[in-house]
Specification:
The protein is α+β, with helices and mostly antiparallel strands and about 270 residues long. It has helices spanning about 1-15, 25-30, 130-135, 155-160, 175-180; strands at about 40-50, 60, 65-70, 75-80, 85-90, 95-100, 105-115, 120-125, 140, 170, 185-190, 195-200, 205-210, 215-225, 230, 240-250, 250-255, 265. The protein has an eight-stranded antiparallel β-barrel with strand order 11-12-13-14-15-16-17-18. A five-stranded mixed beta sheet has the order 8-7-1-4-9, with helices on one face.
């Protein structure tokens, strides 16, 4: 009985902690989410859009080569050639998925995390484009490991960093302060959940979420040179931690987690 309790405790700790993986730049993350593929390769997106199993990094192999380790609410973008491919998710019990790629197309694989006996298990699912793009939009791009070629993002996707209006752009700490001074309350979206984020003049923050188990929450906000950090009290939604504030259009903003915090999107007219 003691062994069983210990095993369950270890498994629960692995599922509830938070694993850290290297993140790509905000510019590459946004460009990857344009889903524009070079005509001479295909793009494979492998994503984890859940918090379950947050304490475990799950290695992903593509055709026997290490493509990276995933964490909660992250995705890998792997360039592949036309033809058959094998994707393996390494966990307590490995999961395999085979597919055949065509150049110029994007493929989306959901890496589902499941409860295992000694550590989390995983299962790979090929998703359709609509579901895959929506899920990837709630995740953050992982940096490709050393020696692994990064996907070639189409010129149109890269051009998003320098379009005529200068979007997307990462706001500085001073710009973030001015932004929330103009917009102290915003209706935000994280995944499928909506909530109201309110910033007070003393840098305390409040979160109102009718669809959450705890509908009201409070915390604090701290500004740094190029980021804003939130610390919430007794709630895990949204994530505590530091974010870059990225303006993606004239009235569209995304709080992009610096260390795997789930991205928060909202509209505000500056």
């Amino acid at each position: 009985m003691g062994f069983v309790r210990a095993t369950i405790t270890v498994a629960l700790l692995a599922l509830c902690a938070c694993a850290s993986v290297p993140m790509a730049s905000a510019e590459r993350d946004l460009a990857a989410k344009k889903f524009e593929v070079s005509p001479d390769e295909a793009h494979l997106y492998v994503y984890r859009d859940e918090t379950f199993g947050a304490g475990v990094k799950l290695p992903v192999l593509v055709d026997g080569r290490h493509a990276g380790d995933t964490g909660p609410h992250t995705f890998l973008l792997v360039p592949v050639a036309a033809g058959p491919h094998l994707v393996i998710s390494k966990s307590e019990v490995d999961s395999e998925l085979r597919f055949t790629a065509e150049n110029g197309k994007a493929y989306f694989v959901w890496q589902e995390v499941k409860f295992g006996l000694f550590s989390p298990r995983s299962e790979l699912h090929m998703m359709n484009g609509k579901e895959g793009r929506a899920a990837v939009g709630t995740c953050s791009l992982i940096e490709a490991p050393p020696g692994q070629p990064a996907a070639v993002l189409a010129p149109a996707a890269l051009a998003v960093a320098v379009d005529a209006q200068g979007f997307p752009r990462v706001l500085s700490g001073a710009e973030i302060a001015a932004h929330f001074g103009r917009h102290p309350s915003v209706d935000a979206t994280l995944g499928r959940q909506t909530f109201k984020l309110t910033v007070q003049s003393d840098n305390s923050v409040e979160r109102s979420c009718p669809g959450c188990t705890v509908t009201q929450a409070s915390g604090s906000m701290k500004l740094d040179a190029d980021r804003v950090c939130f610390q919430w009290t007794r709630v895990r939604f949204p994530d505590s931690g530091c974010y870059q504030l990225v303006q993606t259009a004239a009235d569209q903003f995304t709080l992009r987690g610096v260390d795997q915090q789930r991205p928060i999107s909202y509209s505000a007219r500056d």
